Amino acid sequence: MSYLDNPIRLQEVRSFYLERLLKPKLTSERADIVTRSYARTEGSHPITRRAQALKDILAEMSIYIKPWELLAGNLGPEPVSAPVFPEGGADFILEEMDSYGTRPGDKFEVSEETKTELRRILPLWKGKTLKEYGLSLMPEGPVRMREAGVFSAENMLTCGTGHFLPDYTKVLEQGFRGISEQAKAALMTLDLSREEGYEKRIFYEAVLTICAAVRDFSLRYAELADSMAAEEKEEERRRELKKIAEVCRRVPWEPAAGFAEAVQSLWFTHLVCYIDSNGYGVTLGRSASCLYPWYRSSIASGEIDREGALALLVSLFFKTNDILKLYNNNAAQNYGGFPVGQPVQLGGINAAGEDDTNELSFLFLEAEKKVKLYQPDIGFLWTEKINPGFFRAATELVATNSKPKFFNYHVGSAMYRQAGLSEETAQKDWAFIGCVEYGVPGKTWTWADAAMFNLAKCLELALNDGIDPVSGSRLGPQTGSPEDFKDFSQFLSALQRQIAYMFDLTVQGITALQVAHKHCWPEPYESLLVDGCMQSGREVNQGGATSYHTGVQFVGFATVVDSLLAIKHFVFEHRSINFRDLVDNLGENFRNNEVLRVRLLRETPRFGMDRDDINSLAGEVFTYCCDTAGRYRDIWGGLYTASLYSLTAHVGFGARVGATPDGRMAFSPLSDASSPSQGLQNGSVTEIFTTQSKLPHHKAINGTLLNMKLNKKLLSGPEGTARLQNLISTYFKMGGFHVQFNVVDVEVLKDAQANPDKYPDFLIRVAAYVTNWNQLSRDVQNEIISRAEMESF
Description:
- By secondary structure, this protein is an alpha/beta fold.
- 51% of the residues lie in helices and 9% in strands.
- The chain contains 32 helices and 16 strands.
């Protein structure tokens, strides 16, 4: 019996990961290898250096195969560990690593040996990192706004881009041998009497280096599996190891010849993205569709049966949990709970225009039932043609796994059309990246998480004539004091001016980082997996891809809408509160006027109530944010797009914003994503869905996210599941885009916070990802507890 077929052993594997994920380790091996590699290639072209560094890492890094694994390939020298990428940023690690084991969330164990190594290695990178170069390019205005908490771009400041859907099918069909042969053929056609020819030569030679490096990487595992098989005493495990060796001798260099080779090839392709660039959100995409031809042929030939295929998927699911990344202390406030963003996506429409559900889709759900860990997340792509049985199976998972998250495929297609993509692409190729962001598999290069934008900070500046009351500094333009506004429309215009001004500075900051990536952090490996680069002979950051876009996340949406509703209701319509008095009380955090705060909390109309005036104002703010983003283009000519999702940035950004007119206390969390404000959802699930469906989601091309917390009793029995299915379908037919659920009682959350040892495997959906409750900071835990618990449909 396979390790993964035995329920007892399967639980042992889960326990291994749960224990490691509560205390993952930071490792120095990659930092050492890349430092020595860069020293050897000093003076070479950045693309050449990057390719050689990847070759050296894949040749020298420690490799192993765990006792239960059916797939090979690891990220670091130890399971569930995070490597260090010194080329991205070194100073923050030197300053912070002593705190990583005790910081509020996202804790890492850092051994004294590792600290010693990092203190030797990291000073060698002074003046040479992406972070230093990016900040040196950034104008004073964006630097000040970043420091004030107007925007955060930490992800792009210290690591590779990530956030893309690799062309896995290309590798499965051609292998890296096929890609290598394309590069060789292209080299033969270059005109080296022209500068362009030399630039292309550098790229294609890097492609050859990388393809050979990936081939040799897999051969290292083949040799390891052979040696392990020779010493293995259990016959079944010996056969498994020999199969791993056989597969790794072929893929990903050769085209995949069967299901086992296809899954292994996909995993190697995916894994090397994280070894190379440390980017967030390299997405597994519509893997069931991608792998299905190989599954079907292997089933037909008798090479594998359904149980064998499931075991491979279970092994794949476990392996995704080995991928972790280190965020600095500031970024960890915005990315709490180790989000990595590598979801699989099931459902949708196929090339024939029909439902894309297949037998493998069901097996992916079965694998999730067995593994039930952080990764991978699962996205369910709902369509009006969806297989009813598959929809039911996915909905049944929600009560126990907080997965999947649900997407409206038709609204996603409308987002594609809004972005200018063809009708055919919009209908058949829609997928999401990372959390909820848009991207075409294998075709788009996206900065989908370019920055988080603090919408509530703009509100605070509009209330104070451009002065930041937290610091006392002028950040924004003079748009008027409370006494100057004669009606609500004037104040709304002032807010819009602050948003426009701050967004322009945010774009300037992002542009500096995009230029820094272009010159300092080329990504030739990722370029092999994006359409256009092999044809053009240019790497993705040099403009080689066929499609680009840059996404900015607007954070604190409902906080701002509710605050505007309070101002409109109390100050201008009923004139029961003086605007100056309100702003003064906000500045004092309601210290001497708790009565006012309670009144604001109780009497303010709220986003989430299905009223035309509320929905109209919310739609106006939403549209303004989307239109503001859409006026800009990135350095490659790609569209700037807006989104409403926040990971945990609504907690980090909230700590930079004083009290707001909706009754929120100073420095407490903002509303998350597109959800109503925490604890204030007095309506039913139906009312929230109705309100959300009236937002013009298709305009937010980079996606919107709705979090909901359901009382467990709502999903009890088949009737509860059926009701939830009907509600989701109705919501999507009305125009909603996304929804995801936590199904847990608030008292359980409070008990888990007070007694963490009682809940070692308590998984919770934070945002567009699932993590262990005990890895979240107390601030984030409190924010989740404060989300309203829906007790009726």
